[in-house]
Amino acid sequence: MLTPAQNTALKAAIIADATLNAFVNNSDGAFGIAALLNATASPDYYVWRTSVPMKEIMQNGFDWTRVDNLTIGKARIWDWMRGTGEVNPSQSNVRAGVLAVFGTAGDLSTRLAVFQHCQRLATQAEKLFATGSGVTATEQGAGPSVMGFEGNLSYQDVDNARNS
Prior knowledge:
Helix content is 50%, strand content 6%. It contains ten helices and four strands; from the N terminus they run H-H-H-E-E-H-H-H-E-H-H-E-H-H. The protein has helices spanning 4-16, 18-21, 27-37, 54-58, 65-68, 72-83, 92-101, 108-117, 124-128, 155-162, and strands at residues 46-48, 52-53, 86-87, 119-121. A two-stranded antiparallel sheet has the order 1-4. A two-stranded antiparallel ribbon has the order 2-3.
């Protein structure tokens, strides 16, 4: 369910888009609009994922030798993050933790490998409610946007917004 502010933003986006606004204002039209907004954004628009299994990060492109170079404090941070089973990189403190752990020049490729797993392509709807630049992640932990809405819009969401 969308917030009142999101309903207003969705309604404005539909009105501003000639293709979306051309749909009849009924349940069939709402289904059609929802389908278009639930498609992957084009051009590509990246968002931070809200849940990334640490297993995915650690088993795909992770340079295990970089862990040997960590100080005790940094190793403790990484162990805590790894021990949670998953991380939420949409939270700035999680991204800051990755930057702190892998902070040397030799760690840039490891940091980038971690951040690459922490992003995904957004849908048109997620892009509508996201904040940020929406570009692919850099080794500095910048790039993807933070979502204000995650998932698919229902036809009811569209219908509520159009008739609010």
